[in-house]
Amino acid sequence: MNDGLGKAWELVESGDAGAVVQHLRSTVDTIALGDLARLLERVAQLVELTDLAAAAARLAQDPDHPQALYDFGYACIERGLAFAAVPALREAVRRVPDADGVLAELVVALEEEHRHAEAVAVLEQRDATLPPWPHRYLLVYNAIMAGDLDRATRHLDRLPAPQDRDWRPAHQRVQLMVGRAGLVGGVGRLDAQDLRGWHFVLTGGVLGSLSPYGFDAGMTGRYAYQQDSFALCRLGLHRLELILDAAGRRPRSVALLPDRSSRILGLAAAQVLGVPAEPFTGARPESVVVAYDLSEVDDGGLLTALRDRAAGQVLFEHATCWTDPPAVSADVSTMLTQVVVAPWGERLRRGPDGGVERGTADDRPIEEIAAEILRDAGEPDPGDGATPADPDDALVGFVSAVAGRWLAGPRDRVRSPGPVRSSRFG
């Protein structure tokens, strides 16, 4: 028994299913499939996932059977364990190399783990006989996500329009991504550190600022845990104004989403832009819809209304979660963060005993808090000095170059961080 397997069984016996999964993430490739199945059967029993337990039991009994391999991989993906699905589905593909459905499921597992270059490699092994839908589409999409635009373009040229109407949005999505990349290439590097450039290619949104901390230590412009400030809120509104001006957009109103944080920020935005603020009512043209954090919006109807924009409508989100992106992609984001605490939220602070405690939320009227945002100078945080300079004129130049393809197409959710990677916690 190798060390990874032995440690996994110790964690199983302790009854800590979460710790087992965390351990397996870094050791799964060192564990035989039969052993992996037996481990996950026990884990599934601990948390009462009967479908996964049954699939794991079947694979443990016959770890060479293609159907058992596929069923186990499928169950792992369904239960958020795509990393464990990958070795099983790889083996299934090896045993039944012409099975299109098995290949597609392996690609799904690799996508879930953001292993896009590997997805491209397994699809290209079948290049001569690859079905166009969904397989060649998946090849195009994963090539984009891996940052290989030349390969993506070559395969997109070979991808016919889908006969099935359900695949037409996907076809449009990759066409828009490749088209946006053509514009960004004139002003950005589109390398593994060009966060603003790739954010636009993948989502169609403009990123207003880069994190000034840890750029060369794994963050690459994104935030992890962020206690937001009035200064950053004000800077975000300043950058929003610059973006609108550079793109030649003249909004007639600000639309306020119903949550408290969005209303606070929206009132401040209306003052900055010099337009009236009114509640969001749907497809109002030439408006700026202001969201503090779309992850906090749990109204499915509202999110559906935001996915397809009205003419000239701009969706501005101050804090966009990059580890679990919201259901719609904003047209402008001040920052990309994993966790954010608003300046008026329950913030961490040092207590009287020197320890860390959570403070109380600021319950002042929203108008007073909005006014405090406006009073702030909005000076950028100098940070640790490692983040590349990001002056206003660089942002204006970027927006001027890409404005022709901004605000085009639906606001699709993009689950992957794409070619620019950042460290996450938890």
Automatic annotation (TrEMBL):
Name of the protein: Tetratricopeptide (TPR) repeat protein
SUPFAM superfamilies according to UniProt: TPR-like
Organism, scientific name: Plantactinospora soyae
Location of the region described as Disordered in the Swiss-Prot/TrEMBL record: 374-394
